[in-house]
Amino acid sequence: MDKADVTPRVWQRILDIRAGQGCPCCGDWTAGERSALNIYAPLARRDMGPMAIGQIGQSLDGRVATASGDARDISGPDGLRHLHRLRAIADAVVIGVRTALHDTPRLTVRLCAGQNPARVIIDPRGRLTDDAPALRDDGTRRIVVQTVARDRPAGVEVVRLPSLTDGTLAPRQILAGLHELGLHNILVEGGGITVSRFFEAGLLSHLHVAVAPLLIGGGPQGFNRITQIGSLADAPRPETQVSDIGSDILFNCTLTEAARHRSENWHSTAGAEWAFRQS
Fold first, then answer.
1. Which residue, 145, 143, 140, 178, is CA-closest to 162?
2. Strand 118-122 to strand 92-96: parallel, antiparallel, or no bridges (unpaired)?
3. Is 209 helix (H, G, I), strand (E, B) or coil?
4. Would the CA dihedral through 126, 129, 131, 134 be positive or negative?
5. Which residue(s) pair with 92 in the sheet?
6. CA end-to-end distance (rounded Å), the chain
7. Pair 121, 143: CB distance under 8 Å
8. Which residue, among 243, 219, 198, 252, has the nearest Cα to 59 in the 3D structure?
9. Strands across the sheet with 185-190, in order?
10. Torsional sign, CA 174, 178, 183, 189
11. Rounded distance between C-alpha atoms, residue 272 and residue 144, angstroms
12. pLDDT, tens digit, 9 for 90 and up, residues 136-147
């Protein structure tokens, strides 16, 4: 198992890559630094077309909260730092309305250097109150995706989409709406049902599952596949890099060929154009 070491110079290189001014190839890196670059550098690229990353922080027994809904301390301190790094290299972070109501997340970057991503709440029926922390005016773009004709406070952007027959929104239409707003690198942060819907739609390029060493025994699961399988032979087995990130263990799953290509051809324009066509 790799042990990732996100040193200050590694993280600065990641931010340089996000700005289109660097690569992970050049430089004298330790094994731990190289492992960290392998995790974050492909996700920070802006020359490979749009992408969506799914992220789940869960316990050893696959829970993301207790039965009463307490989810605040599932991830260890390094798992939280990992989440904030993903936010820092994303254009937008997406959560479902239940996560916004129950966890009241701020969705900001506080545990590493970097800019806050745009905050996107999927709220089909307009249940989120206008004073929710995710809609607080702090200079960051705030976006609500909904089906209803509900006004939002000044500065909050609304993407209005038609609902599916079950009252939910189509993940592909959500991504298309965000792309129209100029947001292309998307972090789907939660909750588990929202991440699962994007996975089932085939829209995630990567899935990060950070496992913390605790046992909860009950409560919602981190990942809920909508499509049930009858045989393990039919279960997806993604290419996975397992890394020790400190307090948590990270399963970094590559889900598409375009995602795999993000780790290659750092100095090849042709490679970048190929991946953009495949995304």
1. 145
2. parallel
3. strand
4. negative
5. 118, 186
6. 29
7. yes
8. 219
9. 2-3, 239-244, 249-254, 206-212, 51-59, 185-190, 92-96, 118-122, 142-146, 156-160
10. negative
11. 32
12. 999 999 999 999
